[in-house]
């Protein structure tokens, strides 16, 4: 009997080993996550969550006592964009239209309300009831569950100068009474209210990208410009629960980044966190949504600094962190009395799980897994690195090795360049594109080149005018750094990216023709001058001015740095991928390069999906994309290296 048990155990072990030795299916990596956001009701009786059902984002309302619920499916092809608890039994949500895998659904400006049990659905504001403009949620009112603060925006007649917003107090019952509070002092501005429901700040950027911050005094009329906040690019985040101070995120030029508190009575600023290298990701919340307990940031991996480590909420968070070493642990939503909170635990190899934490029982209960079919043990881990670019600027990034090959050397490598490019960065997070390459045997190099977000305003500005210049050099220098470290085989390197990353992939191939064996441009830009004429960016004054700041206007320089004009230098094999409904980077960018390659009789791979937009979203299309990219790479730098 003992012998049979040992044989059975050995067979089970062999089966498990064989399973883990198989590459992760692309279809698993292409599946949409099940849950994108989870918030608990103020009284702790319900959960609301954005769930993905058959490729559409819907609103799930769940009764915690029995985990039974109701699903709210928007009309037509709309999807849920965001939602808020307006009161313990009422949810307000907004809907939108999905524009691609790289973009969140584009909000239609409509606001809906529904009861926690699924009853009482109503359209609060939107074009379907004859309203003009768009609405945004500002805040709920804890002491008045029958009202919320909303912002209504209307566009100028020309449609290019931005939207003008007006803040209202809106009654949710009895015919939706609207009480105007105040209009924003400029276009394209957002409001911040205190915990008494008073509009206190309006902020945004003017058409030239300058920070604008205004204060609405409690005992005064109109707006007062906050010169210090504008000079140091301080964005108001929120008030402390007693409204004694407001927190601002500041990225003063030449002085690193900091989070400051501002006392409205004494007009005193105080730095509560600072870092010479990176910006804050946001405030760290305790077990209520109204009280920040610290600052979260990511110098390489997610980190946190607590304002008061002796507070009950800080102690509870530290206790939870100890239960999940090596992972990111955060309170994401809490009840009004602070007795229950939703906790999100996630990591670079783990899409995440939402838990319910009961303070009084000191109990943590799993609620909802983001992607339960993903096994973190089979995923690649990200290792942060830092190096000095050729001009001395410090550049940070991540390397993901094939699982089980973390100490291997001279592996085939994919350089994965993120899009944006400005204000966007690669993070220590789960990324299915990284996993598609790494779990199939390729080391993946990600670079936060100058211009990327998270490293301060100076770092972003250092990338202005550097398309094909220093931003591209940073990617090149990171690639050569990986070769010098013995990480990558210099004869087996490909470069890939989407949006701006697609530009960088092809620009890298023509600027460094002997460095990359293949290049994949995914919904990328290949003709810089064309950006001024096509796409959604040049459709507004602020968009046109943005292009002037970051690209420049010299037609010769734009031409020299456009991959489509440098094909004489091309040696790498090329794959181009476009989405036919892409409004950010119209498919003409890809098709023009496709035709230019055909005219030169340069063989290349071409993938055009007419129903996709800025990045693929359909699971079947994503599965095909991952499959074709890995096959393409394998053809030119060899198969990936696995256990």
Description:
This protein has 643 residues and is α+β, with helices and mostly antiparallel strands. The chain has a domain at 379-637: 3-Layer(aba) Sandwich (Rossmann fold). Strands 28-29-31-30-32-33-34-35 form an 8-stranded mixed beta sheet, with helices on both faces. Strand 28 and strand 29 form a beta hairpin. The longest helix has 20 residues, at 2-21. The radius of gyration is 26 Å and the shape is globular.
Summarize the structure.
By secondary structure, the protein is α+β, with helices and mostly antiparallel strands. The two termini are about 35 Å apart.
Give a topology summary.
Blueprint: H1 2-21, H2 26-30, E1 35-40, E2 46-53, E3 56-63, E4 68-72, E5 79-87, E6 90-97, E7 106-115, E8 122-125, E9 134-140, E10 147-155, E11 163-171, E12 178-187, E13 189-193, E14 199-205, E15 211-215, E16 224-225, H3 227-231, E17 234-239, E18 246-250, E19 257-263, E20 268-275, E21 280-285, E22 292-298, E23 302-306, H4 312-323, E24 328-334, E25 340-347, E26 350-358, E27 363-369, E28 382-388, E29 394-400, E30 411-417, H5 432-438, E31 443-448, H6 457-461, H7 470-484, E32 488-498, H8 500-511, E33 518-522, H9 541-551, H10 555-560, E34 573-579, H11 588-599, E35 604-609, H12 619-637
Parallel strand pairs: 30-31, 30-32, 32-33, 33-34, 34-35
Antiparallel strand pairs: 1-2, 2-3, 3-4, 5-6, 6-7, 7-8, 9-10, 10-11, 11-12, 13-14, 14-15, 15-16, 17-18, 18-19, 19-20, 21-22, 22-23, 24-25, 25-26, 26-27, 28-29, 29-31
